[in-house]
Amino acid sequence: MSDKEQKKATIYDLSVVSGASPSTVSAVLNGTWRKRRISEETAGKIMSLAKAHRYTANLQARALRSSRSGLTGLLLPVYDTRFFSSMAQTFEGKARQRGLVPMVVSGRRDPEEERRTVESLIAYSIDSLFVAGATDPDGVHQACQRAGIPHVNIDLPGKYAPSIISDNRQGAEALTTAIIRHAQGLGPLTAEDVFLFGGRDDHASRDRVIGFHAVKQSIFGRDVSQNDIETTGYSPGMTALAFDRFYEKHGRLPRCFFVNSSINFEGLLRFMGRHGGETFGDIVVGCFDYDPFGSFLPFPVYMIKPDVSAMLDRGFDLLDEDDVEPEITMIEPQLVPPRTALEGPLDAIKDPSPTTERAGSSRR
Prior knowledge:
alpha/beta, 14 helices
């Protein structure tokens, strides 16, 4: 291949092949095309051509010219849940669609670690930051404010920056209604048969508890908020112990119960591993989180799937706006019935070619 053929495309080359002006191409590649009101079709065409012609931006040169690095960050609390790993995968895709370079890091649910991690991102000259499920979002806000970094909260709200979260109360009401109606279809059910396990004293859990109790009261017609919650934090081990305590006290599990996250649901699975199938013969479970494997357990499992894609889209839109108020935007989540597996961000990755599969097989 000649030197000319190996040469990577420039903005001006992409302008010629796309028919768009150099300034339009530049706006698409640096992620500001929405502000310029460039159509999504045009942006998609330019990004496809940039990939086909091996365009790469020199981030250091870009930063010197425009005071923008093209880097955008996502701060997660942990990686080891499907919710946050899915968020990371979706975030990377959406950032790249906007011509940005994503950086994903974890604060490990530790306020000091969150602040140190954000300060490290700021040292790398990130242009913007998504703060997901932070233990101390307001502490993160202070670090971003000092550095002048636009930022939004995702999943859990903060006081001083705009926040995009799941409508936890609405989701909890939908989930609680579904599991109670299903359990009633299997036989008589009382308020004492319906419990909630997991969560802690945070914004999401409080709203879910409100929704849970609102539905119980509407169905059973009296105050039902006494001794029907086992608060365990986001810990599989503590949740498994809570199921152990309940089982030892009552000789059975509740007929119908709400599990506050996939982390708490893992505690239920640990409990299951120590007991026979008869323990789970008549239960109906709701999980405020989504994992496709949970849908195929031997008992019915309803799940709530937060709309991560819509949350991130709204976050990118807010980061493009000036002087945004620290308001909360709520995004309605989806109720997933039992025996249902939905598409996820990995479905966007192309299947390997037969040649790739054969090569992989030869290495195994």
